[in-house]
Amino acid sequence: MAGTSFRRTLEVCKASLVDVKGRIRPLFGQQRVADCAGQYLDALVGNEPRKTGWMRAEAAGDIGPWRQQAILGRRDWDADGLRDIVRAYALETLGDNDAVLVIDETGFLKQGKATCGVARQYTGSAGKITNCQIGVFASYVSRHGHAFIDRALYLPQVWTDDPKRMAAVYVPDDVGFATKPQIARRMIARAIDANVPFSFVAADSVYSTGEIETALRKAGKGYVLGVAANRAFHSWSEKLHVGGSAETIAQSLPKKAWRRLSAGEGTKGARLYAWAYLELADLDINDYNTSLTGLWTRGMLIRRNIADGDLAFFSTWCPKGAPIKNWSWSKVFAGPLKTASKPPKTNSASITMRHAPGMDGTAMSPWSCSLLP
């Protein structure tokens, strides 16, 4: 019985892969190029722990990585079109009006200085400042599962202020510097323009800016955005009078303000945190979006680690009374959030890079880089 189930799973996986190859076929002008792209995809979903160029080539039966590098760099195809196909494919299964759009970044550790966007910068992947690329990702999280639907490479100013260096790796002339919050705001705008169904945006403190908060309020979307401990909060509620930094407010809360909730199952059982939520003000959504009516609540969310007392702070915005107040969000914002925003263990070339025509090594393609106009 188990053998039959396993064979059936393999048949479904094979059929799904054939379907995906059919969806991306219009991106390639020639069938042989599309076939090579299909072999590249076969290698990416293989069981090799690292997807380097040579390993992908070996899995495809090639004597070297040049043919697959040609797909990445020397062929004209629409990387943004592929992004849109992936997004539509993911939404067919995961689409849900109550979904969360998670914005997060990750670092790809690198050696040398030639790879596009590489610089000494902080990355949570290493927990320190080191030589790396930074990729910003948008992950779609719903009760059905999660998947990436957008991506962009962050280009530090040491790159964008150096036209010769940008030209050497084929970055388009119209690409300039964009902060990570600006990249995030463009990803959110793309999702909204594509009618992606979601109710909330979740992100850490890197992306908690007034511009993003204002944009989400105007779009009628809720948010839970991480903030620094010194972020100032003030209440306009008749029931609650608080003011000061997030950390000061947290330290002054009584025991009854905290509620212990699980953030989902971990390797050692339920991941429990203490949570506190403060409703700071009820505001009319019509002041931000004239097509909507009703009160929305501006709030502050605090998460405390039970083991060491470490605090995390979030600025929140949601329709009055839901969904934050019923606490059903805890497993979304503290559980799948980090998992959903963690890119697969693969060589970063398979996500952001293409082989530069006429050059050894890899460089950023103009198509992927065009995400940062």
Number of domains: 3
- Unreliable residue stretches: 344-373
Find the structural class using helix and strand composition: alpha+beta
Give the rounded overall mean pLDDT: 83
* Share of helical residues: 25-40%
Largest sheet: 10 strands, mixed
User: Distance N terminus to C terminus?
Assistant: 54 Å
Order of helices and strands: HHHHHEEEEHHHEHEEEHEEEEHHHEEH
State Rg. Answer: 23 Å
Number of helices: 14
How much of the sequence lies in strands comes to 25-35%
Q: Could you say which overall geometry the principal axes of the C-alpha atoms support?
A: globular
Tell me the number of strands: 14
Question: What can be said about this structure in brief?
Answer:
By secondary structure, the chain is of the alpha+beta class.
